[in-house]
Design brief:
About 25% of the residues lie in helices and about 30% in strands. The protein is α/β, with parallel strands linked by helices. Strands 4-3-2-5-6-7 form a 6-stranded mixed sheet, sandwiched between helices. The chain has a 3-stranded antiparallel sheet with strand order 1-9-8. Helix 3 links the parallel strand 5 and strand 6. Helix 1 crosses helix 2 (about 45-55). The protein starts with a strand and ends with a helix. Its EC number is 2.4.2.8. Its cofactor is Mg(2+). One of its GO terms (molecular function) is guanine phosphoribosyltransferase activity.
């Protein structure tokens, strides 16, 4: 897998430092509250786990699975709900945990969905923000790194369900996804 990486953008140590910083910020924001923390599957699973351990505060955890990439390197533009949360969020504080905000379509879908379900507040924590890819207005409250407009994998992010288990975030060599 490592041979398929053009360059490492963020090392395991850099990611952990950002997780710790975000954990402190989230704990401060939700002091005295018990938010519902919703991880967006599958990409955010590693980040969600690390963030949950870095937040010294009560929380309830749930997951949602949505897709707009459908195995491709670019968003299809259509967001599909694959698996819903099990928690009633009416009147609750919700924190969405994303691996990356690129076009913003998935995030906008989630923000609208949770607002329509009566969430008291909705905030977003994303490990990676790619503003150059933004197609709709959707912003995060807690951001780990701003990334260039390159195809990144690792630490949960994938290409064709591969590379999620890399402990760092790297840029995938273009020949890997252009030859398929």
């Amino acid at each position: 897998m490592n041979n398929d990486i053009l360059k490492v953008l963020y090392s395991q140590e850099e990611i952990q430092a950002v997780v710790n910083r975000l954990g402190r910020e989230i704990a401060q924001t939700y002091a005295g509250k018990t938010p519902v923390v919703v991880g967006v599957l599958k990409g955010a699973i590693f980040f969600m786990t690390d963030i949950a351990r870095a937040v010294d505060s009560y929380m309830q955890i749930d997951f949602i699975d949505v897709s707009s990439y459908h195995g491709a390197t670019e968003s299809s533009g259509t967001v599909e709900l694959l698996q819903d949360i099990n928690t009633d969020i009416e009147g609750r504080d919700v924190l969405i945990v994303e691996d990356i905000v690129d076009t913003g379509r998935t995030l906008k879908f989630l923000l609208d969905t949770f607002a329509n379900r009566g969430a008291q507040s909705i905030k977003v924590c994303t490990l990676l923000d790619k503003p150059a890819g933004r197609a709709v207005d959707a912003e995060s409250d807690f951001v780990g790194f701003k990334v260039p407009n390159e195809f990144v994998v690792g630490y949960g992010l994938d290409y064709d369900e591969k590379y999620r288990n890399l402990p760092y975030i790297g840029v995938l060599k273009p020949e890997i996804y252009t030859n398929n």
